[in-house]
Amino acid sequence: MTSLVTGSEEVKEPDRVNLIGEGTLQQIAKGLCEYAHQIPKSLSAYPAVLQLGVNKLTLACLIARMPQPIQGVPDFVSRWAQRPLKDWEIEIDCPEEWLDKRLIEDQKPSGFCIETAGEYFDEWGNFQKKVINEVMTKTAQNPELYTRFRKYLIENPVVTRGQLYIDSAVDFKLVQDLLIHSYEKAPESYKLGEKFYCCGHCGGLMYVTKDNILKCENKHCAKEKKNPVPLADHQYDEIFWLKKDLRYFIHRPGKAELRLERKLKQLNRLEVKLYPELDQYDLHLVFPDGTVWAVDVKFWESAYNLAKKVNQPIRQLKHQPYNKSFFVFPDELKSYGQEYIQEFRGYCPVSVKKSQVMFESSFVNKVIKKLGI
Predict the structure, then answer these.
(1) Bridge partners of 293?
(2) Which stretches of 190-266 are assigned E, i.e. beta strand?
(3) 10-residue block means of pLDDT along the chain (373 residues)?
(4) b vs e for 196-214, b when ≥16 Cβ sit within 10 Å of the residue's Cβ?
(5) Is-contact 305 116, C-beta < 8 A?
(6) 242: which strand partners?
(7) Considering just the CA atoms, what is the radius of gyration of the chain in Å?
C-alpha cells in the first residue's frame, strides 16, 4: 500500500487539554483507511469523513488555545497519527487500552486503525463480507466447498495469475468468479530489487519500508524471526495477492485457525471439524466421551473493539450442539497478557466465563488434559 506519510515533525509535549470522543477517532480511522485505499488514484482529495474528523480535532485544539494546533489533514498525519494516543496533546474519552495504540504504523493504517474503522466501512470495508456471504449462498448445498474456498484464501495469500485461473476453473468452478475477484495484482512497490518476498511465518506478501527493510503487514510475524521467502522468478506471469480486507479479516486469523486445527488433529481420539455448517464457528471438537466443544479463534489488536463485535453467544449446531464454547486468541497476541483477556471479558455484552477465554497454547493444553493424555 502506498505511503500515507510524507514527513515527520518533533512536537513538544504540552499539558493535555479539552476532550474528544471515541466517535471522532472512529471517523478519523475510517478516513485514513479510505484514503490509503484510494492511493494512488487520488492524492489530493481527502475522504470527507477524514476531513470531518480532523476538523473536530482541530476545533478542540483551537478552543483550548494550543500553541501548535493541527493545520489540516497532512499535518495531523505527519504529527499525531503516528504516535500513541496517550502522547496526543488532548484528553481522549476512549477505552484505556486504546491509549497505547497508533493509527499509522510504518506509514500505513495500523491494525488498530482498521479495526476501529470497521463499523464505518462502506463498499471497500464490506467486500470481505460480500464475498463470504455470496460463497455461503452458492455452497449452501455443499458446505465442504465453502471450507475449501476459505482454506484456499488462507493458504494462498499470494498466487500467480495463471495458477489462480487454473485452480478456480478446476477446483472451484461453482464459485470461480468469486475466487478470482478476491485477488488483485500485487503492487510493484512491494518488490525489493526485482523480486517479491513472502513472510516466512504467515506467507503474506512483504513490503519495503522507507529504510529498505522487508516487513510483513502483520507486525506480529516479526516476533517469529523467520527469514523472508523470495518468490520464484515469474517473468511471464503476474503476481496476485488477496485484496486488503480479505488479507486482514480472513488470511490473518485464518492462519491461526488452520494452525490450531493441525495441532488438535495430531491428538489421538479427538474428532476435529473446520468451519462446521458453513462457518457457524471455527472449530468443532468431539471427544471420545461424546462431549462437544465449539471454538472461535479471534485475532484482533484491540480487545475492546473485538468485544463490541461479539454480541451473541457462539451459535449451536442443530445436529450436534456443543457442551462448552471457547474464544481462543492466537499465541502471537500472548505478549498483550492477561489484560487483553480481562478487557475482552469486561466489555463483551455476552457473559463469558474466565474458563472460556484463553490463548492458543493454553487451549491446546486444556484439550490434552480433557483427553487425559
Answers:
(1) 285, 324
(2) 197-198, 206-208, 214-216, 229-230, 239-242
(3) 48 54 92 79 76 92 81 90 91 91 92 83 63 93 96 97 96 96 95 94 95 94 95 84 92 97 95 96 97 98 94 93 97 95 96 96 97 88
(4) bbbbebbbbbbbeeeeeeb
(5) yes
(6) 183
(7) 22
